[in-house]
Amino acid sequence: MSETVATHRFILDFLRKELVGPSPGYPAVQIDRQEILRAQYPPRQRYGAGILFPARSQVLRQVETGADEEDTLDAETPEMDLGFEVSEEIGVQEGTEVSVDESSSDTDRDVTLANKFLPSAMGLSALLEVPERLQVKVQAGIYRHEEFPWDTRTTRDEKKPYPKGWWRSPVDCLIELSADELLGKGTATFEKPAFEQDGQTVLALHVVSRPYEQSTKSGRSRLITFTLVNRRQGENKAPDNKDCFFQCGFEIASSDRQACFLSYPEQPHDLNDADERSLQLLHLHRRTFAVGHGCAADWHDPDGERTTSIRTEVLPTYEVKPVLPTQIEGLDLSMM
To answer: Which of the pair, 312 or 158, is modelled with greater confidence?
Structure first.
C-alpha cells in the first residue's frame, strides 16, 4: 500500500469516527471493545450523522451541557407557539391544504421521514430481478446512561456517587425477505422488526415493492423501496438520547449472492438538448443501481449492468484520479 493511499484511508477513518462513530478508547471501553462516552458528551452531541431520531422530534432550543451536569438535553423543553397545530399524521399540519395521492400516501410516508431535519428514517430504492430470497443486514448502536462501577467522586457533603457514562450496545440484525412477499400483481407493502424492546418493535424495516412496467422478465422485476424506521414516538421535546439509534445503516444482497440488482431507470431525457446528449455520452458506462433517501447509496463493483449488493452510506466518498501531464518525446513545454 502506498503512503498516499494509507494517508487517505487514515483521514477517512478519522472523519468517520468523528462524525458518525463509534470511536472507542477514551475514557474507557467495555470488555467487548464497545464504546463508553463521558456523561458531558452524550451521543447526540458527540455525533452528527447516521442518527435516526424518534418520530415527531422537534428542535426547539439549543442547550449546553456542563461537565458536572446530568444530560439536560433530555429534560422537557417549554412549548413553543409554532403558529399551527401539529397533526398526528407526520408531515401534515392542521389548516394546510395538502394534495395526496391516496394510492401512495401510506407507502411514501416512511420515505418522507427520511427528509426531515431530525430524520426518523433512511432508505434505498432499487430495481431488482427478485431472487428467491433477499437478506438485509441492519446495523446500528444504542447508548444507555449507566454508572462507572469502578470509580467514585467525593462531593461537598462527603457522598461518593458513581459517575455516569454513555455505554454503547450494538444492534445487529439479519432480515430475510422471500420472493412470495415481494412479488405479486400490485404494490406489496409490509414491515419487518429489526430491534424490539419491552415486546414492542422500535426499529423496523419498511418495504414497498412495486411492479415495473418495462420488465423484460414478466413478474420478476420490481421497483422496491427499503426504509429503516425508528418507530419510537417523540413527545414534542428535544429527543432523548436513549430513544435514538446511532451509526445506522443496512446492506441488501440475495442469499446466494447473485447479481440481482439492475441499473436504476433514469428520467426521460430531452434528446434535442445538446448538454443532455453530451452528459449521456460522458457517463455512458456509469450505472446507478440505487437511490438513497436521507442517505447516499453505494453498491458492490458492478458486473456489466448488474451488481450483487447495495448499501446505505452516510459519509459517501469518491476517489478522484489525478490529472497528470502527458510526456511527449522531443517536445519541451514550459507548463511541464
So the answer is: 312
